[in-house]
Design brief:
heterodimer, A: 102 residues, mainly alpha, 77% helix, 0% strand, B: Calcium-transporting ATPase, cytoplasmic transduction domain A, Calcium-transporting ATPase, transmembrane domain, Rossmann fold, eight-stranded mixed β-sheet, 17% strand, elongated
Chain lengths: 102, 838
């Protein structure tokens, strides 16, 4: 592997950027929940949390794909992985198609 | 100076100047405009340098010249020149457009030339012109008074004096007189508060009293919510940039990178972070919006008000011309017996503030009385009378009075709101005799209510015989004899309901602010089928404290019998409740409310002072026109926000990852010149953003500038861009074993693609993003910019900038990676807009 001394730094950086994005998402989610919570309202179930954070699960999947494919220097693995993720994202977007009017 | 001397000194006469002489003088004295009203190419050009980014860039060019390479210095200077040229060209076109539009609502002056009276653009008035003045006119130049009829001027804009000043034609014998002492002189910019007159123009433009001190007198408009938002956003960016640039410089120097390289790199990052084109983009977006609004017969006088126009959620408007046709006509002039009585009409003609000359000018009801009399040959009845004195109308008394003399006896006539006049009547006229009013007062009030309920606007006429004396006052308005009533019609407007519904659907609630009584106002609303939630009248308002008023303004649909001061209070209360308030008015007394509202809207037919105070002028008084303007305002806001969100997300993410990488990489991830080049290309690609389409659902509701939203947006979407930058670093380092030039090329292309293409995702809230159609020119220029950026590493320019050609495998990975990035950001939108509302 070229530049082997930089790999750990790179892996840490890309991991940190995804962790940061996840933390920001959690912060925004909690902030929003606090603002909207009505008195006496119950907490949302785990199922709702899982579905609300779908894109975070995709991010974590991407992290694994990127670190593995680049660690192995495999452009093919990187390309196939991206195509699979794109299909998943497209399906997710079509399922969550924003209404034509708000 | 005597009048004759004034005519002689100015080479004029009672017939005014000749057209030929006026044209000649216009060439000598120039247009009658103040310097800040004129459009200057030089000012637009110099304004391009009023930008801290160019100071940073200039500093960077000098530093590069001294410590690095001259070629780098030249390249940075070329980028400055290109940015200035782009900014100048676009802002010049934008300002020119606005200037041309403003000419549509230029103030007119009634000028006598060659003995003929005509309306001319006030900017074309020259010394020696003879100008006629009417109530509500803004005096177009400094003038010697030639003729007066109860002429009173509001000179507050010049002297601060809040009471109108009476003007005379008498010569003055004063040395070094103050403006207040010059009672035979009219000052440019002051307003005719009462009466009529004529003036001989002495000085124009910057030579006038107003011109010499206009800079200090200019009444600043309060900052719009949009301007406040932009300022806060700018402060946020400057703080971020300072922290980041300083941190990068220190860290790079600490890890052993050359100090000059570190400094230039941190400066380049700072430049990359600052959206230096924002002023130009905002101006272009606003001017394009102004041009489109002009197509809908809406002329924008103050460009920055467009955003607030789009975002306003309450529109306060008068009734005449919006709910009604605005054609007030006299319907009847009845005595208490019930039939039309010529004496009632004659007294209404005498007690009348309308000015009858070449045209009838004045308030709609007084004008309607005169127009009726002229059209029906009834005007001669006033000939035997001489008006001795007038007690003018005011909104407290809601009536006016005159003392009229005929054959040695004096009649004191009062005309006004029935409830006000009735309160001062002790008798009523029955067959020419005065009888006590008491027993019939209730039936008279009932009759007035019936008129009002039927939709008529009613005025009462009363009189008394009075002794001849030097002057008369409100104290004489007592022990009157009620003579009869005048009723007026103003048919309901057919499309008013449609307009109100359209505004409501767009999230704008309409409130009617009227001087009429509540019965007439409710009847008009019933006629056009507009639901009325609550009516508040002026008398009730006086009793309310500020909290009660803040509650009332939320509930009420109609505010009846209110004074101009109360209009101001209503607007302030609505603003205090957090609304963005539009006020539509065209009267002399509407100017303060037009200033106070977030968006002051007037109409082309309004009096000068009202048009002058307004931000927006409608060429047609119609609420449907307003709704079209609101739609355009929302489009403008939408496109401005897109630029801001672009800058704070992908652009910010790119600069952040560059800064981060510079500390750990053994070489700079991108050279300063490369960053500046990318920044310039990115800026160019953004120039068509103002022409982009805005989704229909976006313009359905008013939006508010929300800095908290922008912060959250940056925090959430910025890291997406950084993530893909880090990924590119990995690909270039570990798959392609890239040396510095190749690494920089790879990252330049990826960074540019993501930075530019993400506009297609960010520009819409729709998911998937491709369900929203972008503007044609935005698509064309973005694709062209991407193609150009892609080709650069393969060109001599690329070599000059330090790039190297990229291997073909890289392009496959890049396409896949960028596609994933765009879809991921789109998926992020689903999450983000679920929890962050804007």
């Amino acid at each position: 592997m070229p530049y082997p001394e930089l790999f750990t730094w790179w892996a840490a950086t890309i991991t940190w950027s995804i962790v940061f994005l996840t933390l920001v998402s959690i912060y925004l989610y909690i902030d929003s929940a606090k603002r909207r919570r009505q008195p006496g309202q119950k907490d949302q179930g785990t199922g709702k949390l899982v579905s609300d954070f779908v894109f975070v699960w995709i991010l974590l999947g991407l992290l694994i794909l990127y670190i593995l494919s680049i660690d192995r220097g495999s452009a093919v693995m990187f390309a196939i992985g991206n195509v699979v993720v794109e299909v998943i994202l497209l399906a997710y977007l079509l399922k969550n198609k924003a209404p034509a009017s708000e | 100076m005597k009048q004759s001397e004034a005519y002689e000194a100015l080479g004029s006469s009672k017939n005014g100047l000749s057209e030929q002489e006026a044209r000649h003088r216009l060439e000598i004295y120039g247009r009658n405009e103040l310097p800040q009203q004129t459009f200057s190419e030089l000012r637009v050009f110099l304004r391009q340098f009023n930008n801290p980014v160019f100071v940073i860039l200039g500093g960077a060019a000098i530093l590069a010249g001294f410590f690095a390479e001259v070629s780098q210095s030249v390249a940075i200077a070329a980028m400055i020149a290109l940015s200035v040229a782009l900014g100048f060209l676009n802002e010049y076109r934008a300002e020119k457009t606005v200037q041309d539009l403003r000419r549509n609502v230029s103030i007119k002056a009634v000028v006598t030339r060659d003995g003929k009276v005509s309306d001319v653009d006030a900017a074309l008035v020259v010394p020696g012109d003879l100008v006629s003045l009417y109530v509500g006119d803004i005096v177009p130049a400094d003038m010697r008074v030639i003729e007066v009829k109860d002429l009173q001027l509001d000179e507050a804009s010049l002297t601060g004096e809040s009471f109108p000043v009476e003007k005379t034609t008498d010569p003055l014998k004063l040395e070094r007189a103050t403006p207040q002492q010059l009672t035979n002189y009219l000052f440019m910019g002051t307003v005719v508060a009462h009466g009529t007159g004529k003036g001989l123009v002495i000085r124009t433009g910057k030579n006038t009293e107003f011109g010499s001190i206009s800079k200090t007198l200019a009444r600043p408009h309060p900052e719009t919510e949009f301007q406040i938002g932009i300022r806060k956003y700018g402060n946020m960016l400057i703080t971020l940039t300072l922290f980041l640039a300083t941190g990068i410089f220190v860290l790079n120097a600490l890890v052993g990178h050359p100090v000059v390289d570190s400094l230039l790199f941190s400066l380049a990052i700072a430049i990359g972070l600052v959206p230096e084109l924002m002023p130009a983009i905002v101006t272009i977006t606003l001017s394009q919006g102004a041009r489109k609004m002009a197509d809908s017969r809406v002329v924008v006088k103050r460009l920055v008000s467009i955003e607030d126009f789009g975002n306003m959620d309450v529109l306060c408007t008068d009734k005449t011309g919006t709910m009604t046709e605005g054609n007030v006509a006299l319907d009847s002039y009845r005595s208490l017996d019930g039939g039309d009585d010529p004496k009632v009409l004659c007294h209404a003609l005498l007690c009348n503030s309308a000015v009858v000359g070449e045209r009838v000018v004045g308030n709609p009801m007084d004008s309607a009385v005169w127009k009726y009399a002229i059209n029906n040959g009834e005007r001669d009845c006033v000939k035997p009378y001489t008006i001795l004195d007038t007690v003018p109308f005011d909104y407290e008394r809601r009536m006016m009075s005159v003392a009229a003399e005929k054959n040695g006896s004096v009649l004191f006539i009062t005309k006004g709101a029935p409830e006000s006049v009735l309160a001062r009547c002790t008798r009523r006229e029955v067959k020419g005799e005065g009888e006590p009013i008491g027993p019939t007062l209730d039936s008279i009030k009932t009759r007035v209510s019936e008129y009002s309920k039927a939709g008529y606007r009613v005025l009462a006429v009363a009189y008394r015989h009075i002794e001849n004396k030097p002057s008369y006052s409100v104290d004489d308005e007592e022990e009157l004899i009620l003579q009869g009533f005048l009723s007026f019609t103003d048919p309901p407007k057919k499309d008013a309901r449609q307009a109100i519904d359209k505004l409501r659907d767009m999230g704008v609630s309409s409130k009617i602010l009227t001087g009429d009584n509540e019965l007439v106002s409710v009847k008009v609303c019933e006629d056009i089928d507009v639901p009325v939630k609550r009516v508040v009248n002026g008398a009730d308002m006086i009793k309310m404290n500020s909290n009660e008023l803040r509650g009332a303004v939320e509930e009420a649909t109609i505010f009846a019998r209110i004074t101009p001061e109360q209009k101001l209070e209503i607007i302030k209360a609505l603003k205090a409740n957090g609304h963005i308030v539009g006020f539509m008015g065209d009267g002399v007394n509407d100017a303060p409310a037009l200033y106070e509202a977030d968006v002051g809207i007037s109409v082309d037919s309004a009096v000068d002072v009202s048009k002058d105070a307004a931000d927006i002028v409608l060429l047609e008084k119609n609420l449907l026109v307003v709704s079209k303007g609101i739609e355009e305002g929302r489009r403008v806001f939408g496109n401005t926000i897109k630029y801001i969100l672009m800058g704070t997300s992908s652009n910010f993410g790119n600069m952040f990852s560059a800064a981060f990488a510079s500390v750990f990489l053994p070489f700079l991830p991108m050279l300063p010149m490369q960053i500046l080049f990318m920044n310039l290309l990115y800026d160019v690609s953004n120039f068509t953003l103002p022409t982009d389409n805005v989704d229909e659902e976006y313009i359905q509701r008013p939006k508010r500038w929300n800095i908290d939203f922008v912060r959250k947006y940056t925090l959430f979407f910025g890291p997406f861009s950084s993530l893909y930058d880090f990924l590119t670093y990995g690909i270039m380092l570990f798959i392609f074993a890239a040396p510095p030039a190749l690494f920089q090329s790879g990252w330049f292309v990826e960074s540019f693609w993501t930075e530019v293409l993400v506009i297609f995702v960010i520009r819409t809230r729709r998911t998937p993003f491709f369900t929203s159609r972008p503007g044609k020119w935005l698509t064309v220029l973005t694709i062209a910019a991407v193609a150009f950026g892609t080709a650069v590493p393969f060109t001599p320019l690329g070599s000059f900038l330090g790039f190297a050609p990229l291997p073909s495998e890289y392009w496959i990975l890049l396409v896949l990676m960028v596609a994933t990035y765009l879809l991921l950001v789109d998926a992020g939108k689903v999450f983000f807009y679920r929890i962050c509302k804007f």
